[in-house]
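Weekly structure sync, notes
Attendees: PL, DS, HV (note-taker this week)

Item 1: FAD-binding domain-containing protein
DS walked through the input record. Source organism listed as Ascobolus immersus RN42. Sequence as pasted into the shared doc:
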Amino acid sequence: PSSPAWQNATLRNNPLVPPALQLILTPSSVKEVEKIVTFANQYRIVLHPTVSTHGFTKTLTRATPGIQINLTKFNSIRLISKETIEIGGGITAKEVIDFLFKQNLRATTPGCDCISFLGPALGGGTGTYEGIYGLIGDGLVSVDIVTAKGTFRASAKENKELFWALKGAGHNFGIVTSARVRVHPIDKKVDGNEWLDAIFSYEATPSKILQVSAPSSAVAWRRQVITTMMQVAFPISFKGTKTEKQIFELGEKGRALLRKGEKGEKLVYVNYANGDEPQEEMFGRANLERLRALKRKWDGRGVFGGYNPI
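Item 1 (cont.): predicted structure, written out as tokens:
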């Protein structure tokens, strides 16, 4: 914190929820990530992996002072086959979209191109074309992850339980250094106008999301018809003022109003969570005990406990 570069290095998209930090590291290899995780696990230090610092949950502010891990050097991308790409854990949505466009391919990608690709995927991942290809997480073929227990590959064939958890509650289990993602050729005969398709296949056409088997991932809200997020933007100068209090009261009223229209189990998309919701709402009652058991197995000392922890 005493470094002149500290202020710029800790800037966040939402300055109201800065995590408590004592160190910032920018690893450039998996070996370096492994050393950081081993050290943090030994001393029970919370790690905050980040790419674009867009996370806004209140739980970031509650964790004990930890270490921010900038993954921006893990931004590789390559074509494995006509159906698969391999990406680094720190790649942004824009880098993926631009690469796919040049290859005449596409996949479900985050609706905002300035954020990371895998951050949303680990929470399930809503995005453009989800109505055609499913959630971002549904497109994951395999994930290479550094956990407190070591480095592993998770897929439908390897570490299957961990792979299930990574697609919906993935922020809780480790640092993803790379992943393979399913991609699709652009077929204008089927899809019609590209621009209109990009708009109306986003969250308004959940058919593919519903077709994916619910047990295939830890996404609890897959059967919800509409995913909604309410945001109120205001200048940071309002912080600590009466106006800020009134804005938060407005937000709470809006959330309560939206909740009135819910039917059945109350659920929240973990990446949209405010951070004060019960775990049953973030992860679903049916998933929670299974996720807690996996959390004890893979992160028993709570190293990955900053972002909506289980």
